[in-house]
Design a protein that fits this description.
- With about 400 residues, the chain is α/β, with parallel strands linked by helices.
- It has one domain: TIM Barrel (Alpha-Beta Barrel).
- Helices cover about 35% and strands about 20% of the residues.
- The strands form three sheets. It has an eight-stranded parallel β-barrel, surrounded by seven helices. A two-stranded antiparallel sheet has the order 1-13. The chain has a two-stranded antiparallel ribbon with strand order 11-12.
- The longest helix is centred in the middle third of the chain and has 22 residues.
- The protein is globular and about 60 Å long.
- The termini are close together.
């Protein structure tokens, strides 16, 4: 058994679009209504109805005994029209943050978790020349209103995934496949992070600001030169594209690894065919369960000299037969890394609740709490009990 340091924070993570419901002023509201975009025709109209159930869901966090919670604020809800801010929406989020503080839970606040205001999407989204300054202006408004309640900020969640899904794979807004747009999207996202980072620091002097990076292990399928080159290219571009930007901590979102083979027909995916080893354990989404990868990435990131947070880590497991062992295995990797001197500050499990999983809709079940979408009843899964026990004892096998 390994004990976690007293300062280490256990928690959960959520995002606004995936749980709140009721916001029509975002690109995902329109995108989900386009035929064939979302599995089963699902839409984020109600999701988990969290907007109306904040107090109830805060009690769910208390029941787990967490010390931290990562949440996002919905940009389109706060700024439904360009430069018109909704003070009631900001007050709603301020009250949520106060409720977390009163419960002894440290918030981590994400500004941009994939969804954009409809007006900004209509102007080009992240490709718009004004995007960096628009995100900075949003950051300033959030910092003025919410800054006294938040120390840890995430400017953008998984910008690499946003680029791949929206501009190469056609799975997310704007739903196109045009490699020529990728450099501009990457450049604007990089500039937007820097602008928002500076804006938050101007108004919240003690803030710690970072990015949430989705990183995956890329393992060559063979020792063949082309397979090794494809794996290396995927690792360098997907994993490292935003790591060099200014950040006070590095947030790591880790889920799985890919076995990479060279495929000349996959130019939009850097000529990489990604697969899972035969007979490997997988999630409901077919992602390999590979806890060792988390330890590998933590040790790699440690060399950058910044504190680390696991800002997301979780599994789609509707039957709840693998989540408990998944949590134990991944936290064991975290504990070993800490024992080796890696400065890991916290682990935020994805997710507190089952939710709207973007293009996959409501079918994947990531929640420690199961959600009956017909009644909005939340039920703690057995794996959630296991996580609560680990938090209470601060120990993992």
């Amino acid at each position: 058994m390994t004990r976690f340091p007293d300062r280490f924070l256990f928690g959960c993570a959520t995002s606004a679009t995936q749980i709140e419901g009721g916001c029509r002023a975002i690109d995902w509201w329109q995108f989900a209504r386009e035929r064939g975009r979302i599995a089963h025709g699902d839409v984020p109209d109600v999701a988990c109805d969290h907007w109306n159930r904040v107090a109830e869901d805060t009690e769910l966090l208390v029941r787990l005994g967490v010390g931290a919670h990562r949440l996002s604020i919905e940009w389109g809800r706060i700024e439904p029209e360009v430069e018109r801010f909704d003070d009631d929406a900001l007050e709603h989020y301020r009250a949520e943050l106060v409720g977390l503080a009163n419960a002894g839970i440290e918030p981590m606040l994400t500004l941009h978790h994939f969804s954009l205001p409809s007006w900004l999407a209509a102007r080009g989204g992240v490709l718009a020349p004004e995007f960096p300054e628009r995100l900075a202006a949003f950051a300033r408004r959030a910092a003025r209103t919410l800054g006294e309640h938040v120390k840890h900020w995430v400017t953008i969640n998984e910008p690499n995934v946003l680029v791949a899904q929206g501009y190469l794979l056609k799975l997310w807004p704007p739903g196109v496949s045009d490699p020529r747009l990728v450099p501009r999207a990457v450049w604007n996202l990089r500039r937007a992070h820097v602008a928002a980072y500076r804006a938050i620091h101007e108004l919240v002097p003690n803030a710690e600001v970072g990015l949430a990076h989705h990183m995956r292990i890329a393992t060559p399928a063979s020792n063949a030169l082309l397979d090794r080159a494809a794996a290396r290219a995927l690792d360098l571009t997907f994993n490292a594209l935003f790591l060099d930007l200014p950040q006070d901590f590095i947030g790591l979102n880790y889920y799985s690894r890919d076995i990479v083979s060279f495929d000349a027909s996959r130019a939009n995916e850097l000529f990489a065919e990604r697969s899972v080893p035969a007979f490997a354990p997988v999630s409901d989404l077919g992602w390999e369960l590979y806890a060792e990868g988390l330890g590998v990435l933590l040790r790699r990131l440690e060399k950058r000299g910044k504190p680390l947070w696991i800002t997301e880590n979780g599994i789609a497991d509707a039957a709840d037969t693998r989540r408990a062992s998944f949590i134990r295995a991944h936290l064991a990797e975290v504990a070993r890394a800490i024992g080796d001197g890696v400065d890991v500050r916290g682990y935020l499990h994805w997710s507190l609740l089952d939710n709207f999983e973007w293009a996959e809709g409501y079918a994947p079940r990531f929640g420690l709490y199961a959600v009956d979408y017909a009644t909005q009843t939340r039920s703690l899964r057995p794996s959630g009990e296991v996580y609560a026990q680990i938090i209470e004892s601060r120990r993992v096998e």
